[in-house]
Amino acid sequence: MLTQAPRGTKDVLPQESYRWQYLESRMRQAAAEAGYREIRTPVFEHTELFLRGVGDTTDIVQKEMYTFKDKGDRSITLKPEGTAGAVRLFLESNLYADPLPAKMYYLSAPVFRYEAPQAGRLREHHQFGLECFGAREATADAELILLAYRLLSSLGIRNLSVNINSIGCPECRPRYNAALKDFLHAHESELCADCRSRMDRNPLRVLDCKNPHCQEVVKDAPQLLDWLDDGCRAHFEELKACLSAMDVPFAVNPKIVRGLDYYTRTVFELITHTKDGNLTVCGGGRYDHLVQELGGPDIPAVGFGMGVERVLMLLQQEGIELPQPRLYDVFVTYMGENRLHAFRLVQALREAGIRADMDHCARSLKAQFKFANKQHAAICATIGDDEAAASSARLKFMAEGQEETVAWKDCPERIRAYLNTITE
């Protein structure tokens, strides 16, 4: 057990980390282009934050949270999602007093859910999430959907579709809930135990049940879109107009309600069609009352979460190769007793911003060159007795096989000039 990772977790190996770094850089770029700035919240929060924010009838709270008592007998929970922590940060730091909207994102933030591990779903996974506080118009919803769609499309992910829905607001949803409860009670015997326990307290959760039999039952349930009030309907129409104006292919899916209680009005999912079926790669929506429910002022908000592991899995499934940086620009080899000279040259190159390394395993010169080849170093810089005496190094440009002797002080400039002529 000491050498086995816990079930539902996954290591990132040295040879894989470049994929994470590249994807993270693209995510940061997408966020920055829309004016979102990074936040970092704790891995754990007070349990009450999720009970009040996520909702005590959700699967996350009832079945999936990692909750424990700390040494002060306080109930602590590892983050099951990112939005509640972002709202807590927004309130605790009084960011609502700043000019709004406040746009923020978190990246590779660990999220913990106790559920059956499967492809693209781990007990510890990482999210890229954007949260926008203070924007009430549907253009903010459309901006986030478009940002996610462009990001995933630009990475090469195919067969993407945008599914949107509106789940109304506290003014129009009670009337719908009453109609939905009547329908569910008429089919109570056909529902699973979880749905029967939820249909009075939170009937929308029944629509989100993954049980195939329950899905079959609710396919004829009343649709919330038919019960929207004028404000919610106008907001949804504006969202559709914004997406249409930007030629984003979307479909209205009345069955999307998302698995969290804080959503109002807009909910959306970006889905990709794989050989194993549909896979949700990004989901989000509007949560106009969560800030107030957690003790803050009446400030609307909208956001989304995107699983980093899931995106990486899709890229791999579709055979999309991400750019792999060269590990070393220069590998310094040495002969005889010139290890210290090699060490000094490596440090000088690093100070000049050049990726460099040397042998630390007492290999022969032949073995050093062999290792440098395996690491795909662009240049080998060799120091023998003659080079050490002349304060120089013999540079071998590996692709061409050409060699030249260069003074140590001129090595950074010569190496950089050569690197500018090649691509990684």
The total beta strand count reads 16
> Beta fraction of the residues?
15-25%
Strand order of the largest sheet: 1-5-6-11-10-9-7-8
Largest sheet: 8 strands, mixed
What distance lies between the first and last C-alpha atoms, to the nearest angstrom? 40 Å
Q: What Rg is obtained from the alpha carbons, in whole angstroms?
A: 28 Å
Which second-level CATH architecture of the largest domain applies?
Answer: 2-Layer Sandwich
Name the shape in a single word.
Answer: elongated
CATH fold naming of the largest domain: BirA Bifunctional Protein, domain 2
- Mean residue pLDDT: 92
The first-level CATH class name of the largest domain: Alpha Beta
Q: State the domain count.
A: 3
The CATH superfamily of the largest domain is Bira Bifunctional Protein, Domain 2
Count the DSSP helices: 16
Features:
BirA Bifunctional Protein, domain 2, 3 domains, five-stranded mixed sheet, eight-stranded mixed sheet, 16 helices, alpha+beta, Rossmann fold, 424 residues, single chain
Can you summarize this structure?
37% of the residues lie in helices and 23% in strands.
Kindly describe this structure:
This protein has 424 residues and is of the alpha+beta class. It folds into 3 domains: 17-169 and 247-317, 2-Layer Sandwich (BirA Bifunctional Protein, domain 2), CATH 3.30.930.10; 173-227, no CATH class; 330-419, Anticodon-binding domain (Rossmann fold, 3-Layer(aba) Sandwich). 37% of the residues lie in helices and 23% in strands. The chain has 16 helices and 16 strands. An 8-stranded mixed β-sheet has the order 1-5-6-11-10-9-7-8. α5 (138-154) packs parallel to α10 (230-245). The longest helix is centred in the first third of the chain and has 17 residues, at 17-33. The chain starts with 16 loop residues before the first helix and ends in a 5-residue tail after the last helix. The mean pLDDT is 92.
